[in-house]
C-alpha cells in the first residue's frame, strides 16, 4: 500500500456513503429485532456501528480518545439518529482527507498501530457491519469491487486477531470464484448467502 491516502481514502468515502444509506433504511420498529451477530439485536449492532465507524473514525484521525459519554450512549434513542450518523460520517471522512493524517502511528492505549492500517480496519467495520445491519433490516448492501478488495485484504490479514477476541466466527466455505465481497464476508465468518431478514420492497 504505497499511498494509503490515494488507495484507501476513496473506499472509506464510498463505504461511509453506503453506511449512511443503509442507516436511513432502518425502521424504528426493527431496532429490537435479532441480527446474525450472536447476542446483538439491531439496536446493539447499530450503536456499535455508529460509535466506532463515525465517532471512532474521527477520533482516530484527530488522535483523541472516545469519551465515556459517547461509549455509553444509545444513539438510536434519538429519532433522527440516522441523519446524525450520516453527518458524523461526513465529519469523520473529512478528518482523514489529508495525506498527513495517514502517516505515523495511532495510540490505542495498550498498543500503537499504523494510521493507514487502522483506517483500513475501520473501513472494514463500516462494510461488514453495514452488511450485518442491511441484512437484519431487509436491505441490500452494495460496494464496488475495489472497496470489496480492501475489505477482503483486511479480513484476511487480521482474521486471526478478530477471532482471538470473538470478533469473527470461523470462515464459511464459498466458491473460489465468488464475488470479492462475498469472499470477504465468508472469511469473516458470515454466510454471504444469508438473505435479508424480512426483506423490504423499496
TrEMBL record:
Q: Give every Mycothiol-dependent maleylpyruvate isomerase metal-binding domain span.
A: 14-134
Stored InterPro entries: CHP03086, DinB/YfiT-like, Maleyloyr_isom, MDMPI_metal-binding
**What's the domain of life for this entry?**
Bacteria
Instruction: One Pfam family, please name it.
Output: MDMPI_N
**Protein name (Swiss-Prot/TrEMBL):** TIGR03086 family metal-binding protein
Amino acid at each position: 500500500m504505497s499511498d494509503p491516502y490515494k488507495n484507501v481514502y476513496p473506499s472509506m468515502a464510498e463505504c461511509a456513503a453506503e453506511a449512511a444509506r443503509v442507516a436511513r433504511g432502518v425502521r424504528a420498529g426493527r431496532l429490537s429485532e435479532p441480527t446474525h451477530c450472536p447476542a446483538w439485536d439491531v439496536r446493539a449492532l447499530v450503536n456499535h456501528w455508529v460509535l466506532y465507524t463515525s465517532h471512532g473514525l474521527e477520533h482516530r484521525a484527530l488522535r483523541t480518545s472516545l469519551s465515556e459519554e459517547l461509549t455509553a450512549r444509545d444513539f438510536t434513542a434519538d429519532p433522527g439518529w440516522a441523519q446524525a450518523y450520516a453527518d458524523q460520517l461526513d465529519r469523520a471522512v473529512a478528518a482523514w482527507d489529508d495525506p498527513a493524517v495517514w502517516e505515523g502511528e495511532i495510540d490505542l492505549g495498550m498498543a500503537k498501530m499504523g494510521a493507514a492500517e487502522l483506517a483500513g480496519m475501520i473501513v472494514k467495520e463500516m462494510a461488514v457491519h453495514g452488511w450485518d445491519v442491511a441484512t437484519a433490516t431487509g436491505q441490500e448492501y452494495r460496494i464496488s469491487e475495489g472497496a470489496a478488495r480492501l475489505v477482503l485484504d483486511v479480513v484476511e490479514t487480521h482474521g486471526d486477531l478478530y477471532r482471538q477476541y470473538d470478533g469473527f466466527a470461523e470462515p464459511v466455505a464459498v466458491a473460489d470464484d465468488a464475488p470479492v465481497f462475498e469472499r470477504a464476508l465468508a472469511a469473516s465468518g458470515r454466510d454471504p448467502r444469508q438473505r435479508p431478514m424480512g426483506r423490504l420492497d423499496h
